[in-house]
């Protein structure tokens, strides 16, 4: 069964919502930076989970980009 982030990313890709994926990515990146800057507690598990989610989002962005290239016939807009 796909994880929640995988389902969210799949929905954004199906809807071709690049902005939503970008915002999701920025949020996860901010969380990762914040957790990595903290001390006094072992944040390795949450950081690992966020890094996995970032990888899922990156894959979704790649799928969205590939879909855009396929629908435009590989032509670049002017």
Reading the helices and strands in chain order gives HHH
Task: Estimate the mean pLDDT confidence.
Answer: 90
Q: What is the CA-based Rg, rounded?
A: 15 Å
**SS elements, strand count:** 0
Shape: elongated
Domains, number: 1
Notes on the protein architecture:
By secondary structure, the protein is an all-alpha fold. It has one domain (4-68). Helix content is 76%, strand content 0%. The protein has 3 helices and no strands. It has helices at residues 4-14, 18-37, 44-71. The longest helix has 28 residues, at 44-71. It starts with a helix and ends in a 7-residue tail after the last helix. The model has no long low-confidence stretch (mean pLDDT 90).
Summarize the structure.
The chain is an all-alpha fold. Helix content is 76%, strand content 0%. The chain is elongated.
Keywords:
78 residues, mainly alpha, single chain
Question: Which SSEs are present, and which pair or pack?
Answer:
Blueprint: H1 4-14, H2 18-37, H3 44-71
